[in-house]
Amino acid sequence: MAGLASPDIDEATEIEVGPPVGWQTVVWNDPVNLMSYVVHVFRTYFGFDAATAHRLMLSVHHDGHAVVARGPRELMEAHAQAMHDFGLWATVRKDPT
């Protein structure tokens, strides 16, 4: 092709890649759901054992919230939606770690 400049393929390009940004699904305390129901949701949806589900439920109850999952944003959004479907309050946020 006459008249078209070809790109310089010898040109080096540096790309800096930072650590991947992680995300969290956070379940918040609410005045509606029983503690036993929250444990049930955590066990059935996330597959937590009884002790882990109970510990996370107590964090929700006493601290007002608990991080129940960490991972890619799309997956954390799916988890938050699932928590909404179960009637729990949940949000997604960047993982500060």
UniProtKB/TrEMBL annotation:
One protein family per Pfam: ClpS
The Adaptor protein ClpS core domain is annotated at 22-91
Which SUPFAM superfamilies does UniProt cross-reference here? ClpS-like
Q: From the UniProt record, give one GO term of the biological process aspect.
A: proteolysis
Q: Which domain of life is it from?
A: Bacteria
Name the InterPro entries for this protein. ClpS, ClpS_core, Ribosomal_bL12_C/ClpS-like
Instruction: For this UniProt record, give its keywords in alphabetical order, as a comma-separated list.
Output: Hydrolase, Protease
GO MF term list? peptidase activity
What is annotated about its quaternary structure and interactions?
Binds to the N-terminal domain of the chaperone ClpA.
Protein family according to the UniProt entry? Belongs to the ClpS family.
Q: What does this protein do?
A: Involved in the modulation of the specificity of the ClpAP-mediated ATP-dependent protein degradation.
Under what name is this protein listed? ATP-dependent Clp protease adapter protein ClpS
The organism is Microbacterium mcarthurae
Q: Which gene encodes it?
A: clpS
